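The data are quoted verbatim here:
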Amino acid sequence: MSSLSQRRLGRSVLLHLFLTPLAVIWLFPLWMMVVFSTMPDNGIFSPGIELLPHGNFVDNFNNLQRDTNFVGAIGISVAVAVTYTFFSVLLTSMAGWALARYQFFGKGAVVAIILGTITLPYAVVLIPQFIMVARDFQLANTWVALIVPPLFNSLGVLFMRQAFSMMPHDLFDAARVEGVKEWRIFLFVALPLARPMLAALAIILFLASWNNYLWPLLINSQPGAMTAPVALGTLIGLTKVSWGGIMAGAVMLTVPMLVVFVLLQRHFIAGIAAGAVK
């Protein structure tokens, strides 16, 4: 083995020795969540530390389903997240395309405003947004209120603007010379080239919608139309907290997303890397 190979092997071993404890620290709370989801409520707060699963997951899930109709809430969350992701990716891509490829008066100001909105805490716009949607537009307790207000994503617009800016101008100019209309250039030339960035953005937006708690809690007061995170929150009462049910619901919300991310991490990393290098 050459000295270069030995140095690479040594760096790899040191890197793994450093990252493995960090991975264990990060995964330990998730494992304990799985363990707690299989224990009764009185066993979760027992003095001893339990590291292996028990056999109460089905009972905890049955209690969760009885109290919240959690399966229905998951269905609503999936429908909202998929619809939100599709339209948000489309809108942010269109905005990013316009900012990357067109020259118009006030373009710099538009980009500056979009950058400025990233610095605003969500709490600043939450109450005005709620008043506008619920009082002025009378859209409370509707799917439109759940999906439409968060559609515009400033970070997604800037991310797609960077992605389209990296593409060669000559390719689009050649399509225009051939008489291809602008919307066809966007749909059939630009978007296929931006597929890795679109995949990364879609994963980020889907997870953001899937985990969204505060806005669905405010805008929707109907028990039969709750998203899954809001349904879990209803198990925390003034006098009783169903910890077993909460842990079972948290496992059902978390584990599928981890599996999806692991399966799609190649596309996610490729999209982030492609959008970050010019």
Summary: The mean pLDDT is 87. The two ends are 37 Å apart (CA to CA). Residues 133 and 139 are 6 Å apart (CA to CA). The first helix runs from residue 3 to 37.
